[in-house]
């Protein structure tokens, strides 16, 4: 008699589960539709010079003048730095004296040649005497030309002891101090052309980010300056060392004069990404492979779990890039009681 009793007990246990499996569960059923997703991008960066370049000496030496504090604004022609020019000035004086002597010798040689030419024409001079005067003149002329070249070299050497601003600039970096010895080509400071600035942002790498190029962006420097519109001018194709994407936006010249280099600045823009299936957060669950949703078979009104790929999400919705097509029926609210094959009925339907 124990066997029938045991079978009866098993039947009593399984009967509710069978009934549960046969009774449709009222759930929210969503008809999946694709949509063009618009993402708002908010980033924080800093104001940098749009056009900057290093300033360096063409020759080495000890710095005896330096006017390159960060933020210093210099007009075109102003001296930024200078190295000791004592020896070079002495060489320049010697080159000038050498040229004066060479020019005097050239004048004398020219006069001697002219005189011998006159004597030869009158028949009281010889061709040999004229040829000798001509050779002396040519030698004096070569010496004069060489002295001129040496003077030009000495003058250039003196010019090379100074760094001058070729345009109106602002010092944004300084690398040396007064009294230091620098080598030729070593940067003394980094200069930025006055008035040309840009906002530089580092944004997380995201699909479709390159589409923001040439889009309008609202820049906000904070403080007393109001937000103003600009345009994204560059999205660098190579990730930075931190795995972010560098984005540039020009700052209008009328605004740049009020915003110093180094100012923190925020940017806000929007981009359209590819067509995606957008569902409420309540529709998302998971299986052993990762994110999944419950899909309703319209022929049998039963559900099955289907893997999906999440493109992005927020606190209300999730955007799917793979796994569903437009028209698929998906369970939203009420998915906690589901299992493969369970029948469902629409308690609430969303289009």
Automatic annotation (TrEMBL):
What is the name listed in the Swiss-Prot or TrEMBL entry for this protein? RND family efflux transporter, MFP subunit
Q: Name one GO molecular function term.
A: efflux transmembrane transporter activity
Which Pfam family is one of those matched by this entry?
RND-MFP_C
- Which residue windows are coiled coil? 85-112
Using the record's annotation, list all stretches that form the Multidrug resistance protein MdtA-like C-terminal permuted SH3 domain: 277-334
Assigned keywords, A-Z? Coiled coil
Cellular component terms (Gene Ontology): efflux pump complex
């Amino acid at each position: 008699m124990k066997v029938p009793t045991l079978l009866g007990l098993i039947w009593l246990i399984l009967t509710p589960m069978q009934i549960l499996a046969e009774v449709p569960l009222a759930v929210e059923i969503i008809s999946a539709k694709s949509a063009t997703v618009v993402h708002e991008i908010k980033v924080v960066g800093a104001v940098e010079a749009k056009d900057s370049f290093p300033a360096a000496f063409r020759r080495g030496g000890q710095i005896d003048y330096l006017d390159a504090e960060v933020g210093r604004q210099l007009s075109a022609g102003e001296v930024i730095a200078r190295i000791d020019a004592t020896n070079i000035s002495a060489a320049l004086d010697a080159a000038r004296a050498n040229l004066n002597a060479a020019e005097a010798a050239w004048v004398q040689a020219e006069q001697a040649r002219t005189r011998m030419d006159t004597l030869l024409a009158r028949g009281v001079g010889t061709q040999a005497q004229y040829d000798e005067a001509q050779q002396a003149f040519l030698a004096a002329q070569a010496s004069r030309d060489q002295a001129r070249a040496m003077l030009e070299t000495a003058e250039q050497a003196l010019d090379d002891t100074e760094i001058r601003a070729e345009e109106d600039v602002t010092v944004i970096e300084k690398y040396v101090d007064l009294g230091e010895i620098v080598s030729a080509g070593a940067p003394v400071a980094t200069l930025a052309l006055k008035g040309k600035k840009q906002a530089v942002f580092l944004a997380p790498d995201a699909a479709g980010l390159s589409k923001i190029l040439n889009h309008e962006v609202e820049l906000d420097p904070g403080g007393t300056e109001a937000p103003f519109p600009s345009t994204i001018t560059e999205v660098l194709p190579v990730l930075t060392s931190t795995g972010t994407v560098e984005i540039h936006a020009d700052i209008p010249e009328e605004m740049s004069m009020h915003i110093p280099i180094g100012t923190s600045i925020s940017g806000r823009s929007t981009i359209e990404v590819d067509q995606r299936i957008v569902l409420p957060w309540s529709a998302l669950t998971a299986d052993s492979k990762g994110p999944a949703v419950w899909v309703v078979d319209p022929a049998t009104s039963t559900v099955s779990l289907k893997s999906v790929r999440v493109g992005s999400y927020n606190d209300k919705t999730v955007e799917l890039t793979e796994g569903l097509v437009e028209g698929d029926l998906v369970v939203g609210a009420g998915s906690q009681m589901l299992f493969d094959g369970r029948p469902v009925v629409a308690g609430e339907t969303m289009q």
